[in-house]
Amino acid sequence: ADALRGANVVMPSGAVDDGTQRLNLQPTSLFTNVDEIRDVIVGQRGGRPIRLREVAEVVDTFEEETHVVTADGAAAVMVAVRKQSDANTVETARNVADALPEIEERLPEGVQLVPLFDESRPILRSIGNLGMTMGQAFLLTGLVLLMFLRSWRTSLITVIAIPTSIVVAFVAMDALGVTLNLISMAGLALAIGMLVDNGIVVLEASFQHIERGAGPAEAALAGAKEMGMPLVASTLTTVVVFMPILLVEGIAGELFRDMVLTICITLLASLVVALSLVPLMASRMLDEREPN
Fold first, then answer.
1. Which tens digit of pLDDT belongs to each residue from 24-78?
2. Residue of 263, 258, 261, 257 lying closest to 235 (CA atoms)
3. What is the rounded distance in angstroms from the CA atom of residue 156 to the CA atom of residue 139?
């Protein structure tokens, strides 16, 4: 051991001064490979040096360290769990969290599992923000309609149409393989502001027919027929603006695909609801004697 320690050192050996500069001498005898260790002289016998390879087997069993992980100042091992491309991030994170207690029971004493990063948390926060945005949209839409149309039934119809459109959009997103993630949530948040437009147009047209003396059922049907083609043209015009983004190749196309699909699906869902559910509720809930 002393021979190995003495052969693997770095020691200062003085300096050289040429009159203009002073250079420190520090020869090194550090080992650079296993063969140098094998050739270290560990003793003598009969005046002949004995090298380490003659009395021991020298094998390099040290694995090169490519990553250094510490947690709270102590050495640690980091294990990254990555989902498949078609898997749901939130569901994967929940499954991993459920499996951690069982895995920790099998570990040696003193070893703990500590989650460092969870990609599902930003998604869950986005869903919470989306729910808050939806609640604000319900409230503001109802108040605005109540203020201008002075009918609580009209406000209720529109408020019901918003979540119905979102549910229809979720069903279509699932059919197309669009998962809930930060990008799709951003697209849904952008589309919420446009959800009520189609329904309000149909309701206003129905109100006009009621003011002319038509019954609720007749007015709802006439309003849907009257505004059907304009709403289809208006919605498709907005959808066509976003569709070319789906043709973009590379990382940009992959990044914005879910957002564009979510916006287009949500707008089309609002169109379907405006031309089906809204007239149905209007025919049942509106009163021909209600003032406008």
1. 776 666 667 777 778 777 777 777 888 877 778 877 777 777 778 888 878 888 8
2. 263
3. 10
**Whether the Cβ atoms of residue 200 and residue 145 lie closer than 8 Å to each other:** yes
Pairing of strands 74-75, 70-71: antiparallel
Cite the beta strand spans of the chain per DSSP E. 15-17, 22-24, 41-45, 48-51, 70-71, 74-75
Residue 85 has pLDDT above 50, yes or no: yes
Residues 6+ away with beta carbon under 8 Å from 135: none
Residue 92's closest CA among 187, 12, 180? 180
Write down the domain spans for the chain: 2-55, 120-285
Nearest-angstrom CA–CA distance, 255 and 187: 12
- CATH architecture under which domain 120-285 falls: Up-down Bundle (1.20)
Residue 110 burial class via C-beta count within 10 angstroms: exposed 0-12, middle 13-18, buried 19 and up: exposed
For 93-107, what is each residue's pLDDT tens digit?
A: 888 888 888 888 888
Looking at residue 289, the DSSP 8-state letter turns out to be T
pTM to 2 decimal places:
0.59
Structure-token pair, residue 267 = 């707008």
| DSSP H helix total and E strand total for the chain | 10, 6
Q: How many CB atoms lie within 10 A of CB 271?
A: 21
What lies within 8 Å, CB to CB, of 238 at 6+ separation is: 194, 267
Other beta carbons within 10 angstroms of residue 153's beta carbon come to 19
The answer to whether 38 and 53 have CB atoms below 8 angstroms apart is yes
